[in-house]
Write a structure and sequence with these properties.
Elements lengths: L13 E5 L2 E5 L11 H15 L16 H10 L2 H11 L2 E10 L2 H11 L1 H12 L5 H30 L5 E4 L7 E10 L3 H14 L4 E9 L12
Antiparallel strand pairs: 1-2, 3-5, 3-6, 4-5
């Protein structure tokens, strides 16, 4: 394929074929690949290059077989019906990732105080008492957390209205920061990608200065289907 495999030994990537499907492989002397940025990027690069012209069914990073015959017999032949089902489902589809953050977290906190008099009163009382009792501090933290979650859910619904009808499936990933509103991946028909792009642009324009958007894609849909290889 003219691509280099993982592991810095200059072994080229090739395809092991069985009937009309193939496993993309490269030879290696390593028995277990460390999950490093360099290795995962090499793995992702190969997937993305293949994805330009083919339907790709991702396999878990670091999957290693004994030899090409084993791959033919125990994967391509033994799992041919499952592979065909997955490939049929993934045909002409791609994965797009969308992460949305608040630009000014402090401003959001001020909004929460303005919308929740009970939180504001408790906050003011604790401030007047140099922090107050620990149980009240914990209570305040819980109240702010619930209000923040509710605000994120409301904003998420508004964002999704821009994307209605443009995706087949979507999955939520973990929210990893207080200022993160949305962390989702979408399974989209390739013919709808440009429309999805435009919708993200409209979100960015509508919330200009309020939200920061990270938009990733299109990539092979590894978050929706992954073949688990068992030897």
């Amino acid at each position: 394929l003219g691509l280099q495999g993982i592991g810095d030994i200059n072994d080229e990537v090739s395809i092991v074929c069985f009937n009309d499907t193939g496993a993309v492989v490269s030879p290696t002397l390593i028995e277990e690949f460390p999950v490093t940025r360099k290795n995962t990027l090499a793995h992702q690069k190969i997937l993305e290059e293949l994805f330009k012209e083919h339907t790709v069914l991702p396999v878990k990073f670091g999957t290693i077989g004994d030899d090409t015959q084993t791959i033919k017999e125990k994967v391509l032949k033994a799992e041919r019906l499952k592979i065909k089902e997955h490939l049929d489902f993934l045909k002409d589809k791609s994965e797009l990732g969308l992460k949305v953050f608040w630009v000014d977290s402090e401003n959001i906190f001020n909004h929460i105080l303005g919308e929740n008099p009970q939180i504001q009163r408790l906050r003011d009382r604790l401030n007047s008492r140099n922090g107050g009792l620990q149980r009240d501090q914990i209570r305040l933290g819980d109240m702010v957390e619930k209000a923040l979650k509710k605000k994120k859910e409301e904003l998420e619904k508004k964002i999704f209205k821009f994307l209605n009808g443009l995706w087949i499936e979507h999955k939520k990933s973990k929210i990893i920061a207080d200022n993160m509103v949305l962390n989702s991946v979408f399974l989209v028909l390739k013919e709808d990608e440009k429309r999805f792009d435009k919708a993200v642009e409209r979100i960015d324009e509508y919330y200009a200065g309020q939200l920061k958007i990270k938009y990733i894609g299109s990539v092979p849909p590894s978050n929706f289907v992954e073949l688990e290889v068992r030897w």
